[in-house]
Write a structure and sequence with these properties.
With 221 residues, this protein is α+β, with helices and mostly antiparallel strands. The protein has one domain (2-215): Glutaredoxin (3-Layer(aba) Sandwich). The chain has helices spanning 12-28, 51-65, 87-95, 104-114, 123-133, 140-147, 150-165, 192-215, and strands spanning 2-7, 34-39, 173-177, 183-187.
Length: 221
C-alpha cells in the first residue's frame, strides 16, 4: 500500500497536517505501507492578496479551527511576487537529488517561512535555509543550480498536474492506493482519524485477498 501526500511548502494547512503525516508513518511504515510526498504548486490566485489577509487566514486556520498555541508568521509574504512562490518548492524538490528525499528540507523551508517569517520566495534565501537544514552536506551552489534546472521544474509541474488530475484543489491532499487496486483520495483534511480508518480498511481488504489466494486456485477462465 502507498500513501502519496501532495503539498505546497508555503501552505498553512500543510503545516497543520505535518503531525498527522508523521504519525501515519510511525504507525504504518512497519506494516508495509510506503510514503511519498510530492509538490502541488499553488496558483498565484491561491495566495493571499495582502499580508493583512494572510494574517486573517492564519487566525481562522490556526486559531478557530486548529486551536494552535502559536500563530503563523506572515512575514514571508511579498506583494511584488504577485503570488508566485516557486523557489521553496523547487529547492525542496532539488534536494531529493542530493539524498534528501525525506521531510527535513521541506519542513525547514516551511518553518523558516510560516514560523519565522523568512522570505523564502527568494531563491537565495530558500537555498540558504536548505543548506543549513542539510547540515552543510549539500553544496549550496549545486543545490541552487539544480533548483533552477529544467529537470526539477518539469518534475514539479508534473506532480502538480497529477494533483490536479484527481480533480481536487485543496492542499494537503492524500492519495491512498492498495495492492488490489483500491484508491481513496482526501483533499483538505488535516485530522488523522479518517485517514487511519481508511488505511486500516484497505489493509484489511488486501490481507483478505492474500488469504483467499493462499487457499484457492486461480479464478476460472
Amino acid at each position: 500500500m502507498k500513501v502519496t501526500y501532495y503539498l505546497e511548502v508555503l501552505s498553512s494547512w500543510c503545516t497543520w497536517v505535518e503531525p498527522t503525516w508523521a504519525e501515519l508513518k510511525t504507525r504504518y511504515a512497519a506494516r508495509g505501507v510506503s510514503f511519498e510526498w510530492k509538490i502541488a504548486l499553488m496558483s498565484p490566485g491561491d495566495f493571499p492578496a495582502s499580508r493583512a489577509q494572510c494574517d486573517w487566514f492564519y487566525q481562522r486556520s490556526g486559531g478557530t479551527v486548529m486551536h494552535s498555541p502559536f500563530k503563523l508568521n506572515s512575514g514571508w509574504f511579498e506583494a511584488e511576487r504577485k503570488g508566485v512562490y516557486h523557489a521553496p518548492n523547487l529547492v525542496a524538490e532539488a534536494a531529493k537529488d542530493f539524498g534528501f528525499s525525506g521531510d527535513e528540507i521541506r519542513l525547514a523551508l516551511a518553518h523558516a517561512a510560516v514560523r519565522e517569517g523568512q522570505k523564502v520566495g527568494d531563491l537565495a534565501t530558500a537555498v540558504a535555509v536548505a543548506d543549513k537544514a542539510g547540515g552543510k552536506k549539500i553544496s549550496a551552489k549545486k543545490l541552487r543550480a539544480r533548483a533552477e534546472s529544467a529537470a526539477v521544474l518539469a518534475r514539479v509541474e508534473s506532480s502538480t498536474a497529477e494533483f490536479l488530475a484527481h480533480q481536487i484543489s485543496q492542499r494537503p491532499a492524500f492519495v491512498l492506493t492498495s495492492a488490489i487496486g483500491d484508491k481513496a483520495v482526501f483533499s483538505g483534511l488535516v485530522r488523522i482519524e479518517p485517514l487511519v480508518a481508511t488505511i486500516e480498511a484497505m489493509l484489511a481488504d488486501t490481507a483478505a485477498y492474500a488469504a483467499h489466494a493462499a487457499h484457492y486456485s486461480k479464478p476460472p477462465t
